[in-house]
Amino acid sequence: MARGGPFLPRRLTRQAVLFLATLSAKICAFLQSLLGARGYAPWAGAQTWAYTGGEAVTDQPVNHAVLDTLLAFAGLNPPEECRAGILANLALLRQHGDNLRLLDDPATDPAEMIAP
Amino acid sequence: MSLAATMERIAASAALNCFTTVLDTPSLGGEGPLSGTTFAAKDLFDVAGHITLAGSTINRDTLPPAAQDATLVARLKAAGSALVGMTNMDEYAYGFATENAHYGPTRNPHDPSRLAGGSSGGSAAAVAAGLVDIALGSDTNGSIRVPASLCGIYGLKPTFGRLSRAGVFPFVHSLDHAGLFARDPAMMAKAYDAMLGPDPRDPVCNPAPAEPVSPVLDAKLPPLRVGVLGGFFAQGGAVEAHAAVAHVAQGLAALGCAVAPALLDGASQARSAAFCMTAMEGGSLHAANLRTRPLDFDPAVRDRMLAGLLMPADLHLAARRVRRIFADQARALFAEFDLLLSPATPCSAPQIGVPTVEIDGQQVPVRANLGMYCQPISFIGLPALSVPALCDTPLPIGVQVIAPAWAEARLLQVAAHLHAHGITGSRPLPTPPRQDTPA
What we know:
The complex is a heterodimer of chains A (116) and B (439). Chain A has 116 residues and is an all-alpha fold. Chain A is 57% helix and 0% strand. Chain A is built from four helices and no strands. In chain A, helix 2 (42-50) packs across helix 3. Chain B is α+β, with helices and mostly antiparallel strands and 439 residues long. Chain B is 33% helix and 17% strand. Chain B has helices at 3-12, 57-62, 71-78, 121-128, 145-151, 185-195, 239-254, 267-285, 287-292, 299-309, 313-333, 366-369, 375-379, 408-420; strands spanning 19-22, 38-42, 82-87, 99-100, 104-105, 107-108, 111-115, 134-139, 154-157, 177-182, 225-229, 258-262, 339-343, 356-359, 362-365, 384-388, 398-402. Chain B has an eleven-stranded mixed sheet with strand order 1-3-2-8-10-9-16-17-13-11-12, with helices on both faces. In chain B, strand 4 and strand 5 (104-105) form a beta hairpin. In chain B, helix 6 runs antiparallel to helix 14. The longest helix of chain B is centred in the C-terminal third of the chain and has 21 residues, at 313-333. Chain A binds chain B through residues 49-50, 70-71, 74-79, 81-82, 85-86, 88-90, 92-93, 95-97, 99-106, 108-112, 115, and chain B through 203, 266, 268-273, 275-276, 279, 290-291, 294-295, 299-300, 302-304, 306-312, 314-315, 317-326, 368.
């Protein structure tokens, strides 16, 4: 049996995967350019949260558009009256996150015991 | 005081709002080392037959009554103490104020217009007001040491894993500690000893045999090496906080200890790591209810937890690494010192209803900052005792005495000597306690 599967020859499978990956990337790029042109670029904020390594990568504030994305990704839909409080706390957590990274060393073993 | 007199006094002090439940039929204390004493439990300790509110209405509406007592409640009862009720707290233990949106604020017995501190504020105020002899609390970031400081009593947060958390409603599993309040170290030691010991119901409870502290309490104080923490711990506090530390340091020097400045590097980062980990783990614990019924939470708690739910996992991993780095630094410092001192709180009790407090010339949020000096210590599980400094400050304020892991006996022995020499201790309350503040 061919490694590509019971019905497809391996070469055809590889071509199909390549085609689908290219198509997905193009669709994503198109959507990003479309939303970005309208001033809606939540991924930039998300990037800030994911990759601050000792210093803030960007000073971009967590605005309502970023908050929408984060909430949607987390499966949350809190009422409007929660948003100001969430934003204030995100800002506080961001400050503390930046501060703790001044001591962090990603190579450190947290060495937390797990009972066998 | 008889049990009947205790119940009368509790009723007369209702305006302090210490209790969420006062038991109609208090458990009668039997024979044991705590016979004749009374205690209260923060309303996140299970008490058989009662719903564990944890300061929330969600628990009230959704949880069944507890089937059995929390281990520490059961052990105090078994030692002869009588349980009289469950005490008010910040919702889900998230806060340093005990300004609960559902059950109201707990008032400070020394000035009812001021905070009792939190999150175990009801327990601390009940002890400070003389309503009970002992009270149970929990401490994740300072929730025993902060209200002990503001209410002018002793508050012990033992080493992580020392006292069982079985039957305690969780907040942040990796940081939650159970502990207690008392007006004097001898009573605290007796109650602490009664609660010691392994507990198979709590997976992090130390399986080693109990190490009672009462037998060593009155032994001669050795010439301990005491470090007064500078750096982070010397910044950002009001004058009275640092005056209290200086007072206790001078007292220990007079008792024969060698007192010197000490630096614990990374405390600010450890505090930040505890701050982030708390929001993330607390948010995760309550994620289901935050999704389905956010408006049933105390808004201040809800918004902090929702923000925590939005943090990337990378931040939690970084916080765990910081914990290891900081714990190693603390261990190294304890090669030079036997005890460390710092303020327990950056100021004495702020006014109720005022969201910010002025510290070092800046307005900072009360809820987030009252525990700033406690957070780095509980973050690495070290035992710490807030002792009430008897110095020239208008309101009570505590000093945090910190020991190496498992050295609670040293903490309580030092406290006993400070207490015996009038360096620390509870102040008399305004008589009669002011009841004129609107509830």
